[in-house]
Amino acid sequence: MEFDKDPSLQEWTREQPLSVLALDSADRAVLRIADERDAIQKKTFTKWVNKHLKKANQQIRDLFEDLRSGHNLISLLEVLTGEQLPRERGVMRFHMLHNVDTALHFLHCKKIRLVNIRSEDIVDGNPKLTLGLIWTIILHFQISDIVVGQEPNISAKDYLLRWAKRTTNKYPGVRVTDFTSSWRDGLAFSAIIHRNRPDLVDWRNIKVQHARERMETAFYIAEREYGVTRLLDPEDVDTHEPDEKSLITYISSLHEVFPEPPSIHPLYDQAAQQRIQEYRELASSVHMWIREKYSLMQDRSFPPTLIEMKKLASESSRFRTDEIPPRQRDKQYLNQLFRDLEKYFKSVGEVDIEPELHIDSIEKTWSRFMTAYQERDRQILEELKRLERLQRLAEKVHREIKQTDSNLDTIERRIEDEARRIERLHPLDAKKIADQIESDLAVTEQNIQSLITDVHTLLNSRYLQGPELDKRVKKLHERWVQLRRLLHHKIVGPLANLSFPVEERTVTKHIRTVQETRNVDTNPHFRAVQEAIEWCKNKLKQFQEADYGTDLPSVQAERELHQREHKHVDQFHSKVDTCVKARQYFSSEELTLYNQHLSQLQKVYAELSTYSNNRLSDLDSLLDFIQSATNELHWLNEKEEIEVTRDWSDKNINLQAIEKYYENLMSDLEKREIQFGAVQDRGEALVLQNHPASKAIEAHMAAMQAQWAWLLQLTHCLEEHLRHAQNYQTFYQDIEETEQWLKEKDEVMNTEFSQSDFSLDVGERLLQGMQALRDELNNFGDRVQELIVRSQDIVPLKQRRQPVTRPLSITTICNYKQNNFVIEKNKECTLTDNSGRIKWRVHNEKGIEAQVPGVCFVIPPPDKEAIEAAERLRRQYDRSIALWQKKQLRMRQNMIFATIKVVKGWDLPQFIAIGAEQRNAIRRALNEDADKLMAEGDPSDPQLRRLRREMEEVNRLFDEFEKRARAEEESKNQTRIFNNQISSLQQSLDEAERIINQRVLSPLPRDIDTLQHLVLEHKEYESRLQNLEPEIEQVKDTFRSITLKTPQHKKDLEKVLNKWNYIWNTSNLYIERLKCCEIVLNGVDDATQVISEFENKLALFDELPSTEKALEAVHDDLLKLQSAISQQQIVMDQLNDDFDNT
């Protein structure tokens, strides 16, 4: 198997216990990967913990061991939370358990879930559970904070992965899909840094490096530039199975410093990306607007009243004219932007736009939105028409209820009147009157039935006032029933009890005529009847030929005249009664003849009375209508007068008051429309009833319709003029505010930012202020550009009152018709004379000339004064930018001079205290700023020449300080080396001195063997001592290399050298002593041997011989022996001397 051939696995296996060796190679490979992951986790988590413990001046070396006591764990939690936790100071196990329990309980209180982690596990140093605890802490206190305030229902890991994908997007060769293998080659780390700081990473060079080189560079830059602790090493990531938790921990640290990638991708065309960003922002705005408005278009819950419905229709119309066109222009601009970006998309190989923001998607949603809007608008119009029909029907019902109620009042009065007269009337006449009243009641019943039908229609259509009208109609019907009963009770019932005589006429017509003529001539009663008949006929003819009037004064005059005539007719009733009473003076044929004349009189008078009543009623209804119509026309004329005489060119015009007036006018129109419709409906009803003055009524209705339509046109004119005037005033106010703002900023630049002598802190603050001011100016540049664009759309209001010197093209804003002169809305006309206060002389498209109210026209943009104001503002803005550049250049120069002044004030200790890296950064920044200034400025500028001289001086100063600093640094290094060498050598010499002193003070050896042992031991000692001689020479060399020697250095060296010499001298003395001792011991041995020999010889003389000769021989031998002993005395004396010397 491949696992068996893996040398690293084989090496790992050799270090494992026998239980691991019993596993197969695949299981051993899994265990090895797990061990490697744990090792990487341990290293990463240790660095992470130390990063935070550093704030508490603590550090751990072994994660598993150093957390056991619980102290470091509590300190970590205190640093992470800023809270203080209690702890036990003891070192016993129960102290450790208490501390770890405190930490775990604290995590539990923070709602941090710990799975199967007990304090005993941490105190026992359980690796798995210790790693699990630290991972839980990292997850909560670092990684989980990433998603705070972000999208709901998304985990920290998913959000971090999404962030990594978004940051590394479009980097070739980088594809982040997880937190393991996607990071092995190091490109993702490099891409994150390059995306945020392309100046720190050369992407082309990075791509050709090895994976570990890339990661080394990325980790180093992140730590150096942003303080991101180096939790990982390249070899931790460049493995077959990188540890996910370790990578997540480090990547979350990168997220802390780079939370959101810049919108401009450094690898691609910045201009195109700016356009993409512009497209994305505008498309997002349009997309959100369409979504919001589309949901509104789905709403079909319309209000139940006509006024609210008209308001809704007005809002829909305003939405169509005010809100849709700007968004449509945005959509068209998006379309153009997208078409411009298509080549860029093809070049990069992808469309870097979210699917929902794609122009095709925008077009589809726009089409769907417009369809929904048109459908809703259609339904609004249909509902409006339905409510208007119901309103007209309700007004008609209301009028007919009123009219029917009036008719019932008339019928009731007639019943009462005729009931009182029934006994005086001829039965046939009474029967005719009863039939007439019955007929009137039948007609009224038909009207009530029609009202019931109309009310049912209103109820079925859910008209709000339907129930109320239904109650009124029911009351009318009940009253009709009562009147019918009253008719039968008071007239029809009594008539049923009367007998109707049958007249027999056998006299010829000629005889009756002669008889009548004679009776009229001779009988005053006949003559009175005849005169009454003639008077009634004349009056009837007079009434029939009389006019009704055409306007309010004439109608009022006719009504007053007829009221007087009607009064005469009513008074004439007494003459009729007198004629009736005169029947008592006749009998037989004369009575019959008189009755015939009397019957004719009654018929004519009844006809006259009815006609007079009808005419009076017609005049009343006509006067009521004309009065109402005149009031409406008067109100409309007042509003018209206000609009046609309004001077829109007045520079002091109060737009707020006009806007308030416009709102009130539209509200009044909505309320007045009901009243206006009611008047129109009354006129239509009168015409349908064949009113005798129908022509006058129709004329007034036509005038009302025309004036109403004209006022609606004027309201549109008012709205348009108000919009233009608001744009006009707002534009000039914005111009004035912008100019004032620029003046204030110029004043600030000429005062606050004109300082020439300041400290570095003040200079930094001033430069920051200058940059903030530039940002404000840049933002205002957009506003200036916007005002320049807006100036093209400003209507020249002042030109409305300036004399026209040549034909001028103008635009109509409403429809207008006068005789054969017709103009339509949004059409072009030609203005030839505007000297009139109200009307202008214009020519329409057909060349027809007419005097037309000036309110109907608008002089199209641009306004020359507006363009000049915008251009003036642009020049002022350019001057402010130029002033800022000048002041900023001067400020940078002064900042460099201030820095140079500070640098010149440094002494060497200050220079060294700053630190080499910071010194180099200051010098590099100073030179870069100076070079940039000299490149940007005018070579002839005295300040730049001064700057060049100052920079040469400060660079020389830097070089001199650097040279001295290096010398001092070298001297310090040599001093440090010297001190270390001295210290090390001193320890060695002290030890050597101790040994030699101990040996010198030790007893002398008593035998040769011991002496030989001491000699060998001392030879080894001298050999070790001799090995220190190079160190002695090195210390001397180091001392000589110190440029800034101090007396202490010399004293330390002398002390070491003295000790070195003392040790060697003592060693030499010790050697001499050993030599002497050796001589003494050898002498003692020789002397002992000689003495032994002498003793042996003397022992031979144990017995003296008895002969002289033998004695002499013994004596001679003894003398020889004595002589030999005497000869050895010198040796013994020398031995004594050697002993003394030893």
From TrEMBL:
The keyword Transmembrane helix does not apply. GO terms for molecular function: actin binding; structural molecule activity. It comes from the Eukaryota. Pfam families: CH (PF00307), SH3_10 (PF17902), Spectrin (PF00435), Spectrin_3 (PF21019), Spectrin_4 (PF21020). SMART domains: CH, SPEC. Residues 39-142, 154-259 form the Calponin-homology (CH) domain. Residues 370-454, 944-971 form a coiled coil. One of its GO terms (cellular component) is cytoplasm. CDD domains: CH_PLEC-like_rpt1, CH_PLEC-like_rpt2, SPEC. Keywords: Actin-binding, Coiled coil, Phosphoprotein, Repeat. One of its GO terms (biological process) is cytoplasmic microtubule organization. InterPro entries: Actinin_actin-bd_CS, CH_dom, CH_dom_sf, Desmoplakin_SH3, PCN-like_spectrin-like_rpt, Plakin, Spectrin/alpha-actinin, Spectrin_repeat. Signal peptide: none annotated. This is Calponin-homology (CH) domain-containing protein.
